[in-house]
Amino acid sequence: MPQLVRRQRRRLNAEINVVPYIDVMLVLLVIFMITAPLITAGIQVDLPTAEAEPMSPEQSTPFIVSINSDGQYYLEIGSSAGRPEPLSREELLDTVLTELETSPESPILINGDKSVPYGDVVELMDQLRQVAGIENVGLMTQQPN
């Protein structure tokens, strides 16, 4: 009598293979590590040189008001991502007022290009004092070589 051969059914494997996902994540990590230093944050400003004390790391995140050589205003709050958009002086003052409501202890620093007329920087400081009530404004400089 012929013997009946009984076939054994293969059981399905219901596991997820994560190796391809790990490969993709490692490739993305390498891409971000290469491109991150190439992204320049902030506005290109040619700062005047002066001997000055650096800010202490205990201070809260400053608001940096930048004026480039074309006279355009920019506002950077902490390490905001991306390149900030140019603002008019009125928009800048409104934005500073709004941001000071959330963090009133933050210092304000003016990052003015050395080719910007001194009067423009003083006018901005005066308007910050009059409109926002800010009495303490710092000027950013570059350390001499």
UniProtKB/TrEMBL annotation:
Annotated keywords: Cell cycle, Cell division, Cell inner membrane, Cell membrane, Membrane, Transmembrane, Transmembrane helix
Keyword Transmembrane listed: yes
Signal peptide: none
Chief place where the protein resides: membrane
A Pfam match: ExbD
Top-rank taxon, per record: Bacteria
Coiled coil: none
Role according to the record: Part of the Tol-Pal system, which plays a role in outer membrane invagination during cell division and is important for maintaining outer membrane integrity.
Protein name per its UniProtKB record: Tol-Pal system protein TolR
Provenance organism: Kangiella marina
Gene that specifies this protein: tolR
